[in-house]
Automatic annotation (TrEMBL):
GO cellular component: membrane
Name this polypeptide is given: Assembly chaperone of rpl4
GO molecular function: phosphatidylinositol binding
Stretches the record annotates as Disordered: 1-27, 375-410
Biased composition (Acidic residues): 379-410
Basic residues bias spans: 1-17
CDD domains xref list: ACL4-like
Residues in the signal sequence: none
Any one biological process term the GO annotation gives: determination of ventral identity
Amino acid sequence: MGGQAKSKKKSKPKRKDNRQNTDPAIVGLSLQERMKVRMHVKAKKKTADKYSVKQLLEKTEEYMDSFDFEMAALFCQRALDVEATNLQALDMLGHIYSEMGDAIKAKEISFLELSPDSGHGKYMSLGQIHAGQEAVDFYLKGIQVLLSALEKKAEAAVPLGASAFPEEDTDLPTERDVSVAYCSIAEIYMTDLCMEEGAADKCKGFIERALHYRHDNPEALQLMASYLFSVERNQEGKEYLLKSVAGWLPSQRAASEEDLQNIESPPYESRITTAKLLIEAEEYETAVEVLEGLLEEDDEVVQVWYLSGWVCYLQLQRAKELLQREARAATEEEAEEGRALEEAARSYLTNAKKLYHKLQCDDQPVLEHVEQLLGELGGELEEEEEEVGPDEDFDPCSDDEEDDGAPMEH
């Protein structure tokens, strides 16, 4: 028996050494962890036997299109389990992590070395998760790859004719992609790098390049308007701004009903900027239309309620100034319109203040301006409503109690 026990002791380290030589992935892991590793290896083999990389990436795209990025990441990772160096899968995974706000994982994807001169999407994703000059460098590299791809596309299309690249093939790079990338760089020079020497000139230069590749890009037109307002060339800025909204705001388009349904609006944040610029340009009615669209899309953004109240207040003040200049009393219709504007302004601003406290925002200047305007308008609206819970629809006429806690960043 003693010999048997001794023999067992000798055999244990031998088995451990064999595992280390043949399967280093499980060295030092607990029994449960080893089981998980082996199950994962088995799942990878099963996936490879059952699905092709193409099928897995198609499922990835489906989940990305429905904004289910967790499931998209799962299928994309399965594709990489089968083919670890698949550039398309790596591009997609980088984009997925970027959309999920996981900057660390996005940075960890070491696919740049695999094919540095193809796949512009990876550089755009990295540009989104970096800041300052580092972001600019990624965008510029992405643009370089884009322009190279466009050049090859043009060369290939000449002998084959226009039918070589059907318009519905959305995977092919376009001049719009180049324009959008240049817009991203221009925005960095308006924000992160605004204090850099020559930042204004660089910003303008990148906007001009964006417009060169897509003259009707609403984002580029709006950025040019922002730049012109910042250098006090307001009339020119206003012209660019109106060109921008003419491309997507329904009331500004002379188009058929079918065309209107196919309009692609700029991102939500970009439209908030549009509303601000329209207010600055005193295009109040157009600003109202933009803000109404934003509220229909998402009614829990403090800034949108605040701007809606602000524009109503400004419309009311303009009407009063007009009566003063003409030295006359308001007609019954004008008086009714004034009362409606005043009530609307109070409603929007009251809602902005309540939502500010509900979401525990941290933008003191906005809160102070809201309170100042409400003071001029005679205070908040007072209507008895049940308190709105965090998952319920927010009613602009509700009367939630304000939180007593200190506001935190929103």
